[in-house]
Each structure stands twice: as C-alpha cells, then as structure tokens.
Amino acid sequence: MKPHVLRDSWKRRWAWVLLVGSLVLPVFVLLEMRPGLLAGGIADVGGLVVNQYREMKYAYDRHVDVHGHWIGLAMVLIVMGIGLDGVRFDEQLKMLLAAGLLLGSLPFPLGVLLQTMSQGPGPRVLAVTGSALVIVSLAAMSLGFARGRTSV
Q1: Which of 99, 103, 105 lies closest to 76 in space, CA to CA?
Q2: For the chain, how long is the longest CA-to-CA vector?
Q3: Burial 3-20 (b: 16+ CB within 10 A, else e)
Q4: Does the model's pTM come out above 0.85?
Q5: C-beta of residue 137 within 8 angstroms of C-beta of residue 100
Q6: Which of these, 141, 51, 61, lies nearest to 93 by C-alpha position?
Q7: Among 62, 69, 32, 67, which Cα is nearest to 47's?
Q8: 106-114 long-range CB contacts below 8 Å, 24 or more apart?
Q9: What is the tens place of the pLDDT at every residue in 96-115?
Q10: Distance CA 2, CA 7 (A)
Q11: Fewer Cβ in 10 A, N or C end of the chain?
C-alpha cells in the first residue's frame, strides 16, 4: 500500500472529486443532448474519474480486509495454541489440525490481497480454499475441546 493513499488529504481530495463528479456528470449528460460532443466528452471524463476512484477504493478495501483477517487469525491461532492441550484428540490428530490451521491461514488473507491485482477467480478460489481449511480445522478443534475428559 502506498503511504500517500492513507493520508487524510488524499481521502478528502478523492471525496471532493467523487462529489463534484457525481454532481457534474448528470448536468453534462443533460447538456450532451443539446450542445453535443463537448458535453459528452466532459461527461466521459467525469465517468472515468468516478471509475478510477471505484478501483482505488476496491484496492484499499482489500488491503483493510487483509489486515483484519491476519489480525483475527493471529489471535485465534494464539488462543488455540495456548489451549491445544485441552483438545481431547491424540497427538497425531492435534498436529494435523494445527498444520491445517497454519496452512489455511496463509492462502486465506493472501487470496484477498491478490484480489487487488486480479479480480478473476484465481485469488477468490485461493481465499475460499484457505478459509475452508481454517474453518474445518477450527470446527474439529472445537469438537476436541467439547469432548469430555479422557481417563489417563
């Protein structure tokens, strides 16, 4: 993420561009019906500015999503790591579930981040696959926590 994107001046500037573009665009569309090409060209430029803002906003939202996903996953993994002894499964299954959490926690936010570069199905499949692996591992760990104490 570029540092200038996060500054308040950047946000205000694009808010003004979006506001002016959304107010000017309908006026020039109406003018396009009468004077013709000049108003149409100005309306096209206004539409391009709005589209550029939409694309930048999409990329910014994905960066915020990645940040939130990684923080949430880190907290869940820390808690699960602390309570791993409370999971009532044998050690081999616990290690398999821990590996599933680790392997799912990498492609999940990475797929969301890659959506800023490609909005095709690849990054979405990566994010969904990673999140599914995390969900299945968390569900199995929860079952392990819910099991009663075994006699030792």
Answers
A1: 105
A2: 88
A3: eeeeeeeeeeebeeeeee
A4: no
A5: yes
A6: 141
A7: 32
A8: 106/130, 107/133, 108/69, 108/73, 108/133, 108/134, 109/65, 109/66, 109/69, 109/70, 109/73, 110/66, 112/62, 112/65, 112/66, 112/69, 113/62, 113/63, 113/66
A9: 998 999 899 888 888 888 88
A10: 10
A11: C
Pseudo-torsion of CA 93, 97, 100, 106, nearest 10°?
-140
> Do 62 and 127 contact (CB within 8 A), yes or no?
no
Residue 137 class from Cβ within 10 Å (0-12 exposed, 13-18 middle, 19+ buried)?
A: buried
Closest CA to 72 of 29, 39, 101, 46: 101
Tell me which DSSP letter residue 149 carries: P
Tokens of 48: 């391009």
Distance CA 102, CA 77 (A): 8
Q: Which amino acid is at 83?
A: G
Of the chain, the percentage scoring pLDDT greater than 70 comes to 80
